[in-house]
Design brief:
- With about 250 residues, the protein is of the alpha+beta class.
- The protein has two domains: about 15-95; about 105-235, Sandwich (Immunoglobulin-like), CATH 2.60.40.
- It is built from three helices and twelve strands.
- It has helices at about 15-55, 65-95, 100, and strands spanning about 110, 115, 125-130, 135-140, 145-150, 160-165, 180-190, 195, 200-210, 215-220, 220-225, 230-235.
- A hairpin with a 2-residue loop joins strand 10 and strand 11.
- Helix 1 packs antiparallel against helix 2 (about 65-95).
- The radius of gyration is 26 Å and the shape is elongated.
């Protein structure tokens, strides 16, 4: 039986994603600088061409050969812009995307994400409370913003609290698997002042996907952005350990 140990206070101890960030950042800066330069030249070219067409002599219009050459030049600049955009995406995919994320598979990570997919009739989160909480309300909201579950946990101590929703709405009906739900945690002190809380996905990375250049990790059946990861650790040994359960 595998034990998943949640950190008492998530701290930014990630080294894997961050290690590729500096290299990607420098490459991205150079690429974006070149892209900005090409964009500026492209806009300037269009301005000059438009001005030339507007102010040409009607009795001596612009030579068609020259006009064609200018259009070809404009098309060439536009193609350079597109090529640079594709190059930027390629650099992101290889340097800071899937290549680095694959190394996280099988490791336990903590990611700041309040969304979770309902799978197997349940969805799980971990929320962190500060000290001094006097009143606590935890709500599960669907993609339309409708509250489908509302609870008032009695444990309001400071630290991490695992939370598992059984997939049943307020009427007691089981929601179908596959939906994405958001956990909303509202905590107030004895004076009624709202306190800051955090919501996480904590679990073992089981897969990596990429959509539109963005890299996502699969944790607890939920896809979270790689850049939302705040800590990474090895999965605890199964020997001489007992399993933990969510509330």
């Amino acid at each position: 039986m595998t034990t998943t140990i949640a950190p008492t206070t998530p701290t930014p101890s990630v080294t894997t994603p961050a290690s590729s960030t500096s290299a990607t950042s420098s490459t991205s800066s150079a690429t974006l600088s070149g892209l900005d330069s090409l964009t500026s030249n492209f806009n300037t070219f269009l301005t000059l061409l438009t001005t030339q067409l507007q102010n040409q002599d009607p009795t001596s219009p612009l030579d068609s050969n020259q006009f064609t050459q200018q259009l070809v030049q404009m098309t060439g600049v536009e193609q350079q812009l597109n090529a640079n955009a594709l190059l930027q995406q390629l650099v992101t995919n290889t340097s800071g995307g899937v290549a680095s994320a694959v190394g996280l598979i099988g490791k336990q990570v903590t990611a700041t994400d309040a969304n979770a997919n309902l799978a197997g009739g349940q969805a799980s989160w971990t929320y962190n409370l500060p000290a001094g909480v006097a009143d606590l309300k935890v709500q599960v909201v669907d993609a339309n913003g409708t509250i489908v579950s509302s609870q008032a946990p009695s444990d309001m101590s400071a630290g991490n609290h695992p939370f598992t929703w059984n997939g049943q709405n307020l009427a007691g009906n089981q929601q179908p698997d596959g939906g994405t739900y958001t956990l909303q945690v509202t905590a107030t002190d004895s004076g009624g002042n709202t306190l800051a809380t955090s919501t996480y996905q904590i679990g073992t990375v089981t897969g990596v996907t990429q959509t539109n250049g963005a890299t996502f990790l699969t944790i607890n059946g939920t896809q979270v952005p790689q850049n939302s990861v705040v800590s990474v650790s090895q999965v605890a040994s199964t020997s001489n350990n007992s399993g933990t359960s969510g509330s």
